[in-house]
Write a structure and sequence with these properties.
- By secondary structure, this protein is mainly α.
- The protein has one domain (2-453).
- The protein is built from 21 helices and six strands.
- The protein has helices spanning 2-10, 12-25, 40-55, 83-90, 95-122, 125-136, 139-147, 151-172, 180-194, 196-212, 214-217, 220-236, 238-250, 252-259, 301-316, 329-343, 349-352, 356-362, 372-393, 396-424, 455-491, and strands spanning 34-35, 59-60, 62-63, 77-78, 427-428, 448-449.
- It has a two-stranded antiparallel ribbon with strand order 1-5. A two-stranded antiparallel sheet has the order 2-6.
- The chain is globular and about 70 Å long.
Length: 492
């Protein structure tokens, strides 16, 4: 709420632009039914199942790997944020209504967090608004929300800008209200509680940027920040990490079985990155029937067009921009190029997954297309940097024409995709528990928290609670000391 009030206070135009971005992408949610998808019944059963367990005094902390689908559907996705639709369901709200409300909240969080990160990274509200539209209207994200109903991945995508905000501040040596180590700990915790697969992608992005910006991120203070963030994450999420470790040990054969299934054939075509108008989004594998009719995935035509425009400006010499060591766009761009490579069906994933380490690392991923996430992040940052530079080196008229064209292309392609989904997908009418299909959820006792839990689980919960309280007290005491030091310096 504070973020929304801050945006409104800075200017109504920015606020209403963000509202427009939200309404454009969330159009399929403003109906009285759900769009049918292979995973929507699974998610509805998940909500109802959690409600029944919670009524009995048991909280299911995460969903085990559904190995019957030959991939980690909702593999180790945390259920903490799913308490919102579950509690609404317990008040008597319709099942479809609470599911759509949950998706509306996810999309609103995506808009707010991405704008905050881009506005702080580029110090320009216009650029931040355009970048927010490109990030929130990415076809991969819309397909995750509506086409595949991969809600865990969508949650991780919504919280990923928090990790990007840490990188922006760390590379630019900026300071915010929160300490850097706490911001990183919060980012990792949000990803951990959302999707294990997106957490791995986020850690890949973090490691890549640490190597690329090693002078800023791996100096003495940088190592201290990373160490404190790791300790805070471990302590604050001990209640969740301990059951996960017990589950992975007990079901290690399941992880290897899922990790040995065909994975490479589900990768994307390079043509997915060059597609302008997407179909309604098929539910079968991306390469099982060729490119035609595959799911609506990609980075979007606006990002693709701006990327080629950037290349043309670079090679023609029309753009004279020197790379700065405090500019986070270059590192994220090259990480995005790596993401494009890893997402392709031509990347030798099946060869790599013959190794047990790669099997364990990728067993929770449905397909290589999840690596489109760093591709979207990298391209969004590089084109936002292009818009800033273009505005500085060209006239205001030329910059306005470019910005208008980018938003127009992104808006038209997004409208085309969302309308295709609304017109092409059959409605799914499920109001009560009796309307649910026969979807059997795999259960794991390691993820069930109740008053009858073992001593180890109760100790982990107590340590996490004490750890969170200790972190809050430490931050309050640290912030009180800093103003005193500033006053002493000014007096001196």
């Amino acid at each position: 709420m504070r973020m929304i009030e801050k945006i409104k206070s800075k200017g109504n135009s920015t606020f209403w632009c963000l509202v427009g971005i939200f309404l454009t992408g969330a159009l399929p949610l403003f109906t009285n039914y759900c769009l049918n998808s292979a995973e929507v019944p699974y998610q509805l059963v998940r909500i109802e199942n959690m409600k029944d367990y919670l009524s009995a005094g048991i909280f299911q902390m995460a969903m085990p790997v559904n190995w019957q689908y030959e991939h980690g559907t909702a593999g180790l996705d945390g259920n903490l944020f799913w308490l919102l639709p579950v509690l609404l369901r317990m008040t008597g709200a319709a099942l479809e209504s609470v599911y759509r409300m949950f998706l509306i909240c996810i999309y609103a969080v995506t808009v707010c967090f991405s704008y905050k990160t881009l506005e702080e990274g580029f110090q320009n509200k216009k650029t931040a608004v355009i970048g927010t539209a490109l990030y929130c209207w990415a076809p991969w994200y819309l397909d995750a929300l509506y086409g595949r109903a991969a809600i865990g991945e969508a949650l991780g995508y919504a919280f990923l800008p928090v990790l990007l905000l840490f990188l922006v501040r760390a590379v630019g040596r900026k300071k915010g209200k929160l300490p850097q180590w706490l911001l990183l700990a919060i980012a990792i915790s949000l990803l951990l509680q959302s999707s294990f697969a997106v957490l791995e992608v986020g850690m890949l992005l973090l490691v890549f940027c640490c190597v690329y910006y090693r002078r800023q991120l791996l100096e003495k203070d940088g190592w201290l920040t990373l160490g404190k963030a790791a300790a805070a994450t471990l302590l604050g999420n001990l209640w969740y990490l301990l059951p996960m470790l017990r589950y992975l040990v007990a079901y290690r054969d399941v992880a290897r079985y899922v990790g040995s299934r065909p994975f490479q054939e589900k990768g994307a075509f390079l043509l997915h990155y060059l597609t302008f108008f997407f179909q309604g989004g098929a539910t079968y594998d991306y390469k099982s029937k060729g490119f035609q009719g595959t799911a609506a995935i990609g980075v979007g035509p606006a990002l693709t067009g701006l990327f080629f425009f950037l290349l043309w400006l670079k090679f023609s010499g029309a753009l004279q921009k020197k790379n700065s060591k405090e500019d986070s766009t270059a590192g994220l761009f090259w990480c995005g190029m790596l993401g494009i490579l890893l997402s392709l069906g031509s990347f030798p994933w099946d060869l790599l997954r013959q190794n047990a380490v790669f099997q364990v690392l990728t067993f929770s991923m449905q397909s290589p297309t999840i690596f489109m996430i760093p591709a979207i992040c990298g391209l969004t940052f590089i084109v936002c940097g292009l818009l800033n530079t273009y505005r500085e080196e060209k006239s205001a008229t030329e910059a306005t024409i470019l910005e208008t064209a980018v938003l127009a292309v992104a808006f038209v392609s997004t409208q085309f995709l969302t309308n295709k989904l609304l017109l092409g997908r059959a409605p799914l009418w499920i109001r009560q528990k009796e309307d649910l299909p026969d979807v059997v959820l795999i259960e794991a006792p390691q993820f069930q928290m109740s008053a009858a839990a073992g001593a180890a689980q109760l100790v982990a919960v107590a340590l996490s609670a004490l750890g969170i309280v200790g972190i809050v007290i430490y931050c309050i005491l640290t912030q009180k000391k800093n103003p005193d030091r500033k006053v002493q310096k000014e007096a001196a």
